[in-house]
Amino acid sequence: MASKREHIEVEHVTGLNSLRIIREQERQENMSPNNKTKTLLREASHQVIAGGSAGLVEICLMHPLDVVKTRFQLQRGTSDPNSYRSLGHCFSTIFRNEGVYGFYKGILPPILAETPKRAVKFLTFEQYKKALSFTSMSPGLALSVAGLGSGLTEALVVNPFEVVKVSLQANRDSFKEQPSTFGQARRIIQEDGFGLRGLNKGLTSTLGRHGIFNMIYFGFYFNVKDAIPASQDPRLEFLRKFAIGLTSGTISSCVNIPFDVAKSRIQGPQPVPGEIKYRSCFQSMALVYHEEGYLALYKGLVPKIMRLGPGGAVMLLVYEYVSGWLQKHW
């Protein structure tokens, strides 16, 4: 009996050792460089696809408001003979003179830019957030700093597309008469090149606009979302996230709009052809303030909020749901 019992105990110990060996091998395999690379690539691809999807949906829904916002920002006071009296007057004038397609002027550059732009936005935010988690920075502050970093990186990618978009949106000819997106880009390159006077003019204003927006946008959304308990009801949970995203986009738009106005003035047509009046970010802000008053720095705020309030909520929700679907199915 003793011999049989000893034999069973030996088999049990051997079995445990084999199980430990198998688990250790699995752990080592999971920690191998190849698997780490595959995991990182899978995460990055999820962020790229989800971010691109979020941007595409947002731009298709909200672009008409971006056209209206840019038109208001390009106005130089009541002395401008083409000035719009109100938001309704702007909508009706564009529709009457330029048709329904007038609201989609300049949409191709942001569509072409949306996948890399939003991919960069969300991918870099996640990577900056991951890197900052190893610092002593508080989680709330780290989210805002990660947002700032993602905004600055995003601005470098998107600025050339913004230059083409604004120049097309400033054109008040009918949709059929205006130049094509590629024709406009070619004209800018031929006349002014790729530098800070050509396809990359207004870069400082774009850095300020995107950096400040993303800092508040991501910092506010994720901090408040974590502070407010989630609901078990899917509809209430959707409304909770939408409300936080709407508030986040609205606050961010209110804070960064002076940079947006400066960007539009620099990238849009100058008042006198051949004479550069709006040269740099803060010079343009000071000039607008001196000539048109403080409120002129907030031109286009209403259509901007109408676009980036719900648009910001849509973008975050699409990103989260697409990202969640990809993690489950791919």
From TrEMBL:
Coiled coil: none annotated. Solcar repeats lie at residues 42-131, 138-227, 236-325. It is a multi-pass membrane protein. It is found in: Mitochondrion inner membrane. Keywords: Membrane, Mitochondrion, Mitochondrion inner membrane, Repeat, Transmembrane, Transmembrane helix, Transport. It catalyses: 2-oxoadipate(in) + 2-oxoglutarate(out) = 2-oxoadipate(out) + 2-oxoglutarate(in); citrate(in) + 2-oxoglutarate(out) = citrate(out) + 2-oxoglutarate(in); heptanedioate(in) + 2-oxoglutarate(out) = heptanedioate(out) + 2-oxoglutarate(in); L-2-aminoadipate(in) + 2-oxoglutarate(out) = L-2-aminoadipate(out) + 2-oxoglutarate(in). It holds the Pfam family Mito_carr. PROSITE patterns: SOLCAR. InterPro entries: MCP_dom_sf (IPR023395), MCP_transmembrane (IPR018108), Mito_2-oxodicarb_carrier (IPR051752). It comes from the Eukaryota. Belongs to the mitochondrial carrier (TC 2.A.29) family. Transports dicarboxylates across the inner membranes of mitochondria by a counter-exchange mechanism. Can transport 2-oxoadipate (2-oxohexanedioate), 2-oxoglutarate, adipate (hexanedioate), glutarate, and to a lesser extent, pimelate (heptanedioate), 2-oxopimelate (2-oxoheptanedioate), 2-aminoadipate (2-aminohexanedioate), oxaloacetate, and citrate. PANTHER family: MITOCHONDRIAL 2-OXODICARBOXYLATE CARRIER. This is Mitochondrial 2-oxodicarboxylate carrier. It comes from Alosa alosa (allis shad).
